[in-house]
Structure formats: structure tokens, C-alpha cells
Amino acid sequence: MKKPTPGNESGLLPRLHEWASEEIFFSGDEYFNDLINALNHAKKSIEIECYIFYQDALGKKIITALIEAAKKDVQIHLIIDGHGSLNWNKQQLLKLKNSGIKVKIFHPLPWRLSLYNKSTRPKNFINKFIYLASRINKRDHRKLYIVDKTYAWSGSLNIADSHLKQFNINSEWFDCGVKVTGESVLELSDNFYGIFKRRINYPNENTHLPFRTNDNIIRRQHKNNEFVKLIQTCKKRVWIISAYFAPSRKIVNALKQARLNNVDVKLIISRNSDIIFFPLISTTYFSELLEAGIEIYVHNKYIIHAKTVLIDDIAFVGSSNLNHRSFLHDLELDIILSHKTSLQKLVNESILLMNDSDKVNLSKLTKLAWYYRIMGKIIWRIRYWL
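RE: above sequence
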């Protein structure tokens, strides 16, 4: 039987059930080695949902593992995003189909007509074209890997060589992933099939589950509102590691309110980004946050791709960015960690990141070149789409 999470001193989520085990990864190599080992030993089922699934060295390694598993009668279902996994074509999909692997594409780009029969949306051709054209900005940004409905991996890691040093010696990415076990993995699997089969369940009686998603409009609203409330009502700390920081006004106000309540609020972002202009957008928030007493660290060593939020004695690790895409457009998934060892590892890693960062202050901010500030403000105006 599930039991309430012990040690949740903040009482922010008093009904939250705990995972039987939690493992947190800051190395993409260790994360995918563990996952691939599990794929090779799968007995019954594999479910994979991933925004980016490249046909590179890592991608080919995983595809090989899936095909070999299918030969052993393992039931395999795969969801990829129509934009994030743009490199997939009809021939590659046919290869998996012939191996017995079932694949769905979330919102294929409307002009890729050959992929329509793999769309998660069951409509006729004309209606499907209209639907996909109207939803072109809405993507499946989730990362979820489930083996035998017993083990689940999630976090910020796509299937791409850029996350691994074994394939890319110059990899400078910082990610965070988790592996969890317990009865709630069955709930994750059911949620996966809700997307795979386009089965939309609107009741939101899932506040006890140790994960959050936004796979329908009600859950999206609940997830967004709950996150703001958690920040507003926390007692000790809000530590954020953010890949793309361009939050809504509600989140900014919640962070300022937390600081007024004497909460330790820290933000870690990277100086460089795979989306080159995003650091510019993030700087437009600095003055207001600094004036509220929030600490901001700009990291110099890695491109931060992790998405983590530590709030008192729980942590969210997943695919959600603090930007408008995650709040308004994309499907996201975040795992809630509560074990003390997981939280301490996240604290320790955050401190290491801060040690390799420049702490921003108002005097440094005013010295930014005028054109840098103006460009940030211009790009900020299109944040709704980013």
C-alpha cells in the first residue's frame, strides 16, 4: 500500500505518496547506460516518450536495443514529437513497425503528409491537416522511459549525443535525470497510454501522485496554479536551476513574495545556451528580482539544460522550463522527489554550479552595454512563443 511521504516538513503536499526508490543523475552517460541496460533486460514492456530522438550514435544504440527486445516478444510503444524528432522519416518508422514496435508521432508538421497515419490524432486527412496546422506550436516536450511498468526514467535528457561525453568529448551540457520505482510507475504508464491512444481524462484526482503533468487543460491549469502556490507558501527555500528562464508575471510575483517571507530564493542559469538569445531574455528579469533580494548566479562552465526546482523538502525534476512554452503550449512531465538523499544530492550539485558561476548584483547589471539591454527587451516581447 502507498504511504504518505515521510519527512515532508513543509507540509506543502501533505497527501503526496513517495516513490519506493529514487536515483538522481547529473551525468548523461550514467543515465543512458542505466536505461540501455534495462532495455536489454526488459521482460514484458517498454514505453518511451521523447521530444528529441535523434538518429545519432545514442539513438541507433537505443533503436538496436528496442528491436532486440521486440524479438523477445517485449511489447514496445514509442511516442516522438513531430518537430523535436524532425529527422524521422517513413522508412525509419516502417523498420520499427516491421519489428513489431508501435510508434506514434505527436503533431507531425502539417506539410509532412506521409507521417499522418502515425499521428496521435485520429481524424480524416482534411480535418487532420487543419488540426495540425492550428496546433503547430504545441509540442510533446516530455521525456519518459518505462521498463516492465516497474522502472521509470525522466528528467531533461533527450535521446541525443549532445548529452553524452562518451560520444561527444567536448560535451558541455548540464542535465538532471531521475530513475524511480514504486506503484506510481503504473500511473505513469497509464498516463503515457492516455497520450498514445489520445485518451483524454479530465478528472484531476491525482494530487497524491509523485509527479505532475499537463496532458489536458484542467491538469495544465492545476499544475501551473499549484506551482505558484507552492512558491508563495513555502517556508525555507526555493532553489531553481533553469535552462530557459522567462517566467510569467505570476511566477515572478510568487518568487518576490517568497523572498518577502524571508525564504532563501536562488536562481541558477547559464551564460551560454543552445538557444543563443535566451540569456538575453533572462537578463530582462534581473533588476526586479535582485531588488527583491533574490540571488542570481550565471554559470560559466556548462550549458545548463536541467530543469529543477527545490522547494523546502520536495524537488521537481523533469521537462518543464520556467517559460511560456511550458506553461501555455507544451506537454510536460515533472517527477516529485522527497527522499532526503535525493534532495541532498541536488543541494550539493547546486552549490557546485554556484561555485562556477558569477553572482549578479545591481552594480554589475547597470554596466551591461546599452545595446545588450535593448536587444533583451526586444526579444522578450516574443517570449510567448519561446
